[in-house]
Amino acid sequence: MSTDYQQAREALGARLRELRLSGAGGRLTGTQLAERLGWPHSKIYKLEGGRQTATSDDLRAWANAVGQPDVYGELHARLQGFESHIRSWRRQLAAGHRPVQDIWNIEVDRSTTIYAWEESVIPGMLQTADYARAIFLRYADLYGTVRDTEEAVRSRVLRQQWLHQGSHTFHALIWEAALHALICAPSVLAAQLDRLAGMVGMDTVELGIIPLGASLKIPTANGFWILDDRLVVAEDWHAEIWLDDADSVTTYQKVWNTLWDSAIYGADAQNLISKVQRSVNPRA
């Protein structure tokens, strides 16, 4: 978890403690406040200590319980401030995968140049519908989320229209391991690889693949996307991290450029994709 995020969460916790100790009806102990809210006693101290992230409902309940409902707006603004950077999957996927895809579509439509690094999956902008469907189902199983799979697939495929606008460029960098990963049926992966090979040479797509045996200047790590020079979205198991400060964008661009130096392109990339495809589907 980022230091800035944790500091913001602790600052919110300190504000909650201040409100508990200066409530309109007088000072409350943690136990008294927990009883008013019907919460476990431990939740009070986790929130105040910055060890648990409050929800909007938590903050509204807290403000009401300490007799200061008017401070909810302030508390909610604080929460939005740091949640705009750390977007937990639990909250994002509460209504399913489609809303997350729709938000991505908005950001992609605002962009003209996108850099993507994926070490374990084919980038969403290049996925077939069947491959995307398999990915969404795997994550729905993992997180126990709403299975709005077909809606999510349609939204992701819709985003790919961006590739067919001549003013756009998608710089995709993939680790070879992603080409082998059977996160879907072999036939689906074979079709996905066929589509990926067809992207080589497309005027709006620049595709690089880092072979498993390539010499690396830095370790491969979690995937990330850079949208123009304004936004980085990095993915982890607990959350997406959205970074819009210039220093972070510069750092991720440097990482991308360093990884790019280890990649192969053009006919070499196409030959590698075909080789992997034959191993997945010997008849190919």
Structure overview:
With 284 residues, the protein is α+β, with helices and mostly antiparallel strands. It has 2 domains: 3-84, lambda repressor-like DNA-binding domains (434 Repressor (Amino-terminal Domain)), CATH 1.10.260; 89-280, Endonuclease, Chain A, CATH 3.30.870.10. 52% of the residues lie in helices and 13% in strands. It is built from 13 helices and 8 strands. Strand 6 and strand 7 form a beta hairpin. Helix 1 (3-21) runs antiparallel to helix 5 (72-83), helix 4 runs antiparallel to helix 5 and helix 7 packs parallel to helix 9. The mean pLDDT is 92.
CATH architecture classification of the largest domain: 2-Layer Sandwich
End-to-end separation in angstroms reads: 44 Å
Kindly provide the radius of gyration, computed on alpha-carbon positions and rounded to a whole number of angstroms: 23 Å
Q: What kind of sheet is the major sheet? A: 8 strands, mixed
Strand fraction = 5-15%
What is the level 1 CATH name of the largest domain? Answer: Alpha Beta
CATH-level-4 superfamily name of the largest domain: Endonuclease Chain A
CATH topology of the largest domain: Endonuclease, Chain A
- Overall shape: elongated
Number of helices: 13
Q: Overall mean pLDDT score? A: 92
SSE pattern: HHHHHEHHEHHEHHEEEEHEH
Given helix and strand content, the structural type is: alpha+beta
Helical fraction: 40-55%
Please mark out the parts with pLDDT under 50 across 5 or more consecutive residues, or reply none: none
Tally of domains: 2
Strand order of the largest sheet: 1-7-6-5-2-3-4-8
Secondary structure tally: strands: 8
